[in-house]
Specification:
- The protein is of the alpha/beta class.
- The protein folds into two domains: about 130 residues, 3-Layer(aba) Sandwich (Rossmann fold), CATH 3.40.50; about 190 residues, NAD(P)-binding Rossmann-like Domain (Rossmann fold, 3-Layer(aba) Sandwich), CATH 3.40.50.
- Helix content is about 35%, strand content about 15%.
- The strands form two sheets. Strands 8-7-6-9-10-11-12 form a seven-stranded parallel β-sheet, sandwiched between helices.
- The longest helix is centred in the last third of the chain and has 20 residues.
- The model has no long low-confidence stretch (mean pLDDT about 95).
Amino acid sequence: MEILAFGVQADEKPLIERAFAGHHAVRCLDVFVNEDTAPIAAGHEVISTSVNADLGPRVLEILAAGGTRMIAQRSTGFNNIDLQVAERLGLTVARVSYYSPYSVAEFAWTLALAVNRRIVRASTRTRDFDFRLDGLMGRDLHGRTVGVLGTGKIGEAFARIAHGFGMRLLGWDVAENPACLRLGMEYVPKEQLLTESDLVTLHVPLLPETRHLIDAAALKSMKDDAILVNSSRGGLIDTAALVSELRAGRFTGVGLDVYEAEAGLFFLDRSLEAVDDDTLARLVTFPNVLVTSHQAYYTEDAVDQIVDATLRNVLDYRAGRRSENVLVPRS
């Protein structure tokens, strides 16, 4: 059987081909699944997709009509998949429920440190042999307060690094993490966390109840000189409201690895095209904002684990087994 893998990055391709060797043939495509590309999957029982795939009702109907019976998504998030429609169409859906939390936590810290110490501006200057320090002053993080929204595996890994910096730890989640409590984390209401934190980082899934978790009111409640980092899902932040606050001169820095309208932009080269997203175009002009292209997970360790889990999901499907990764079971 040949697996058709959509949205495969160049660095991912050899890892996927190596993992599937000896099990199933795999064909890697760099295009993402959407209404235009879904017909390519015709005749393929199993496809693999990335987090920016469009797996809404119409696309799922095209896939099912073409003979697809299983979707193996190479990500933890699955907010891009209409699971009810998939179940109605008899499509098995699986995801990767776990991979290295350190990849995302370490990258979130990379963003926080970069905006705090003006690393991008400094690097750009030195390339032009401008070695002035004007505008490059940052702050010690030691002794300051970090607020972690979402204290699962990634949030815990972020908190451990913060503990190493000697920071006061505030947490918010539906359940307290004992490991975070042992680090000295104090769980508080979201409003208190936002008001008291010098650094706020997001590590919660994107669900209907968490969409725009950081809305206009939340942003206004934060310190004027706070740092905001999002390496989870773009829809957690009301980007238009964030732009409004940035225009008012607020925040020491904002580090975003995700963007709520990133589909059709991230993972693609749009450098020679006119991008019609005015909000993103405005966002990247702020000198205190750093936007990266959803790369927090992108380490050899994490991608290896993602690919291995995807292979197991396919093998489980073929064998009629069900694991914790299955979102819609085989009918």
